[in-house]
Design goal:
With about 350 residues, the protein is an all-alpha fold. The chain is built from eight helices and two strands, in the order H-H-E-E-H-H-H-H-H-H.
Length: about 350
């Protein structure tokens, strides 16, 4: 800052001396009143060149903020102004991107609101008998059969689960009773044989009961997969199909109402847009209807295959257990590849109990 002040003072002192020298120079006048040519003054020209050389450089000008005596940090180079301009343009581009995203979201909300209004209007019109709906009688019948079948299979699953819980409780009771008979046979010499026979019988029943439990659990697992995964997946597709059907009928009714109205230029533009929306929802409806038809077909085939296996397993295991045929029961488990859990596998470990 001090260097800048010294240079400025030097510049003004030299300029003042040159101006005073030029003012005191004599201008000759000839006899006709014309001014003569000034004699060349080398010292004046040298002084001017020195001023031009030692003067401030306009390419490296600075803006001083804070006035005289301010801190050196108040000097703002002009190059920083260019940087601030580029930063400002970058901020403007970011704002434009954010504004574009906001407009896109607003358009999405607008379309969702219009679609919801049309579908709600169509739904109430169908409920009160004022509007028409598209019906596929064959497909609707198959959907009703599937829903009724799912309710019945859910009842089978609930009863089979209850049977598993009750039978597991009985097996645990038989195991405890067999352990008690074994203990009493060792402590009662006079009844050792009787307690021993009963202990062996209860242990055999417990072993066969665990095998039957494995078969019933396998049956329950198969029914649960069929009901809560396979059937539920098909019903989710049916729900999408029904929503698409409602949207299709809503836009179809809207197009029919516009077609019955005026046919001016603005109305024709609206009819053309409604025709485009109608075509889009019609394609979506037909695509989902095809998906539902295919899934219903595969579901029926899968249901027959799964239930044939599960019902045969359930029948053979129950019959072998209550007939006391241990060998047939074991063969049934091997035939259907049923893996039995080792005893005590369901109990938590000592680390989990802590």
């Amino acid at each position: 800052m001090c260097q800048c002040l010294v240079l400025s003072c030097r510049y003004f002192i030299m300029a003042d001396s040159i101006m005073s020298k030029a003012a005191t120079m004599e201008i000759p006048i000839n006899s006709n009143g014309d001014t003569g040519t000034l004699p060349e003054d080398d010292s004046l020209e040298q002084d001017l060149q020195q001023v031009m050389v030692s003067g401030p450089n306009l390419n490296e000008t600075s803006i001083v903020s804070g006035g005289y005596g301010g801190p050196a940090g108040g000097i703002i180079p002009t190059s920083s102004i260019k940087g601030s301009t580029s930063n400002h343009s970058a901020v403007n581009s970011t704002e434009e991107v954010s504004r574009g995203v906001a407009v896109e979201k607003l358009e999405g909300v607008k379309k969702w609101g219009i679609n919801t209004y049309k579908c709600t209007k169509q739904m109430f019109s169908e409920r009160f008998g004022r509007g028409s709906r598209t019906v596929d009688l064959e497909l609707e019948a198959q959907i009703d059969v599937l829903r009724d079948t799912k309710i019945k299979y859910e009842n089978i699953l609930r009863l089979a689960t209850a049977l598993t819980m009750h039978f597991q409780s009985m097996v645990q009771t038989q195991q405890a009773l067999g352990d008690t008979f074994t203990d009493l046979s060792q402590k009662s010499p006079e009844l050792q044989d009787e307690f021993g026979y009963n202990a062996e019988t209860q242990k055999l029943l417990c072993k066969n009961g665990e095998a039957l439990l494995g078969a019933i659990n396998f049956f329950v697992s198969g029914i649960n997969t069929l009901v809560n995964k396979t059937m539920e997946d098909t019903l989710m597709t049916i729900k999408l199909y029904e929503n698409a059907r409602l949207e299709f009928d809503a836009y179809r009714s809207d197009l029919e109402e516009m077609s019955l109205g005026q046919r001016d230029a603005a109305a024709m533009v609206r009819i053309e847009m409604a025709q485009h929306d109608y075509q889009v929802h019609r394609e979506k409806y037909e695509r989902l209807r095809s998906d539902v038809t295919i899934k219903l077909k595969f579901l029926e085939e899968n249901k027959v295959k799964v239930m044939h296996k599960q019902l045969l397993l359930f029948h053979n295991a129950i019959s072998a257990y209550f007939a006391g045929n241990q060998q047939q029961l074991e063969q049934t488990l091997i035939q259907f590849n049923v893996k039995l859990k080792p005893p005590g596998s369901d109990k938590p470990s000592w680390l989990e109990e802590q």
